[in-house]
Design goal:
The complex is a heterodimer of chains A (295) and B (287). Chain A has 2 domains: 213 residues, 3-Layer(aba) Sandwich (Rossmann fold), CATH 3.40.50.300; 62 residues, Alpha-Beta Plaits (2-Layer Sandwich), CATH 3.30.70. Helices cover 38% and strands 27% of the residues of chain A. Chain A contains 11 helices and 11 strands. In chain A, helix 5 runs parallel beside helix 6. With 287 residues, chain B is α/β, with parallel strands linked by helices. Chain B has 2 domains: 199 residues, 3-Layer(aba) Sandwich (Rossmann fold); 50 residues, Alpha-Beta Plaits. Chain B contains 9 helices and 11 strands. In chain B, the strands form 2 sheets. In chain B, strands 3-6-7-2-8-1-9-10-11 form a 9-stranded mixed β-sheet, sandwiched between helices. Chain B has a two-stranded antiparallel sheet with strand order 4-5. In chain B, helix 4 packs parallel to helix 5. The radius of gyration of chain B is 22 Å and the shape is elongated. The chains are: A alpha/beta (295), B alpha/beta (287). At the A-B interface, helix 4, helix 6, helix 7 and helix 9 of A face helix 3, helix 5, helix 6 and helix 8 of B.
Chain lengths: 295, 287
């Protein structure tokens, strides 16, 4: 079983629209994982039927037992996250600031502090309209530990793939280069980088690829909105060649992306012309690269 | 006054709004813009100024002192992140897992885990006309944005007094880096697109702002594309839509070249004026 991760560094480059198109093209042969848990939008295009849902617990937050607490303030003095402050003369934990390190609980002279496991979101398993299973999640707003939720989503998707004999897992990653992205990349077999020919697109592509390179994963790139700036598109192309990244395709700037999304469709369902052809060709190319690597 | 520009969804125009609004406001006021999207900082691509300051940014992690260690294993028991582990007769520290809580170091009876600094990123300050601009970037390979965001906020706090209007470009999403970036703001401007993705992520962002009890307004970008659902939603929820930035391919092209929009597109400048008026008129708040 192989795992393809789609990431972009920069947000809004069309990553989810493209991943959802691949999910349709892959059909019953794949399992889909939406690891952009902060902004898990893919379900809007794949319209999955919910099969199971469960709460996801990860990390801790300190809770002070008022009956035991002496209000001595030792906890506040050791906290490095400004998470314990005086509120109306009582030392109080801000669960938003608390990182769950437990230092306060360990030094409390009367054992008044306990660490409570945090419900940080929900994990869903659904069946999509493309006849495949999709694992997705919703991080509770403001929650910590999105990296752990990403890892869990991937783990579930892989397990479903193994149990049902599917060859591919396709993962929609999150923007940035931090913990959720690192978590998306770990264990991946191939990375699809979605970028756009803007100064930001190129800048962010370079940073995220530097990260991909540390994982020694081979990568291909789709330049979306390629005609918006031919100069930067050329610079991206040079960068791809220099770094041995396969240039999968160029997609034109096209408001069909938005029009399709507005009626809950992927590009390959909405457009029966150029965009669909380009995406289908890219998908076939990715599958070909993966099967070659296997040999 | 501190204003953070945030969005649930990435790529909705946070950087476009932050940079244009900052330069626009700086024509009249003392403004400092800080890029808190430390994972992928882009504001600096649009603001061309003279660098006036640069510093490496550090986070603290424990370092094992073999000679002092008694191998009691308390450090491993204390660490909730599995960042310190006793393996045989060695203690290993995994810096990428460490949250710098200092517990292992300060609770070590043998003082065998003194805290040391490691570099996590870089902060640069620029002057572009009347605008001060702070660019803060995480080193590739560092996973935690929050400590750098916190230190960058502290830097701005120390170096710019209340006579400055402070703008912050936040990271996308609704998780811990966004919380840190918006926590101390007097006003949050949520920028979105009038699309199903835009609406979905806007709702999450609004939920987060309500939980933080933040004062917030919405700016709709690429107005004219997609559908009316975002506007309708804001109306129903009694949320102020402060401005509607036009959907115009020329804006995308200017952006692609790293250029500011408002000097070229009057309709865009007009919308910036609405935002600027709102900010400067805001009752009970002073720049």
């Amino acid at each position: 079983m192989k795992e393809i991760v789609v990431i972009s560094g920069k947000g809004g480059t069309g990553k989810t629209s493209i991943t959802a198109s691949f999910a349709i093209l892959g059909g019953k042969d794949i399992v889909v994982a939406d690891c952009d848990v902060d902004a898990a939008d893919m379900y809007l295009l794949l319209q999955p039927k919910l099969k199971t849902e469960e709460d996801f617990y990860s990390g801790y937050a300190a809770v002070i037992n008022r009956e035991k607490c002496l209000n001595c303030g030792k906890c506040a003095s050791v906290c490095h996250f400004e998470a314990i402050n005086l509120v109306e003369c009582l030392y109080t934990v801000s669960s938003i600031n608390c990182e769950g390190c437990g230092y306060c609980a360990k030094i409390c002279p009367v054992d008044a502090i306990t660490l409570v496991e945090q419900n940080v979101g929900k994990l869903y398993i659904s069946a999509t309209k493309a006849d495949n299973m999709m694992v997705h999640a919703r991080l509770r707003s403001g929650a910590d530990n999105s990296g752990k939720l990403v890892a869990r989503v991937k783990q579930e998707a892989k397990q479903i793939a193994t149990e049902t004999g599917k060859e591919l897992v396709i993962v929609d990653g999150s923007p940035g280069i931090g913990c959720p992205v690192v978590s998306s990349l770990s264990g991946a077999d191939y990375v699809v980088l979605v970028t756009e020919p803007t100064v930001s697109g190129l800048h962010d592509l370079k940073r995220v690829y530097e990260l991909v390179n540390r994982f020694h994963i081979s990568a291909g790139c789709i330049i979306n909105k390629a005609d918006i700036n031919p100069d930067v598109a050329n610079q991206i192309e040079v960068y791809l060649i220099e770094n041995n990244i396969v240039h999968l395709t160029d997609l034109p700037y096209d408001e069909a992306f938005t029009a399709a999304m507005t009626i809950g469709q992927t590009i390959v369902e909405y457009d029966h012309d150029k965009l669909a052809d380009l995406l289908t060709a890219s998908w076939n190319k990715i599958k070909q690269i993966l099967s070659k690597e296997q040999q | 006054m501190k204003i953070t520009i945030a969005s649930g969804k990435g790529g909705t125009g946070k950087t476009t709004l932050s940079t244009n609004l900052a330069m626009y406001l700086a024509e009249q006021y003392q403004v400092v813009l800080t890029d808190l999207d430390v994972e992928e900082p882009n504001s600096g691509l649009f603001i061309h100024g003279k660098q006036t300051y640069m510093a490496d940014m550090f986070k603290m992690i424990p370092e094992w002192d073999q000679a002092a260690c008694t191998l009691c294993g308390k450090c491993q028991d204390v660490c909730n992140y599995h960042a310190v582990m006793k393996l045989g007769n060695r203690v290993m520290v995994f810096p990428e897992l460490c949250h710098s809580c200092h517990a292992c170091s300060e609770l070590c009876l043998a003082q065998a885990l003194p805290m040391h600094q490691i570099k996590m990123g870089e902060l640069r300050q620029y002057k572009a006309g009347n605008l001060d601009f702070i660019d803060s970037r995480l080193d590739v390979g560092q996973e935690q944005a929050v400590p750098l965001i916190a230190q960058t906020l502290a830097y701005v706090e120390q170096n710019f007094d209340t006579t400055y209007l402070k703008l912050f470009d936040a990271p996308p999403g609704t998780s811990c880096p966004v919380i840190k970036a918006t926590q101390n703001a007097d006003l949050v401007i949520l920028i979105t697109e009038p699309t199903p993705f835009g609406l979905h992520d806007l709702k999450l962002a609004i939920e987060t702002m309500r939980e933080l009890e933040k004062d917030f307004v919405v700016v709709v970008n690429r107005f004219g594309i997609g559908n009316d659902d975002v506007i309708q939603y804001c109306e129903n929820e009694n949320i102020k839509v402060l401005a509607k930035l036009p959907n115009d391919r020329r804006i995308a092209e200017l952006y692609s070249r790293g250029e500011l929009v408002y000097p070229h597109i009057p309709e865009f400048a007009e919308q910036l004026r609405l935002i600027s008026d709102f900010i400067t008129n805001k009752q009970g708040m002073h720049i």
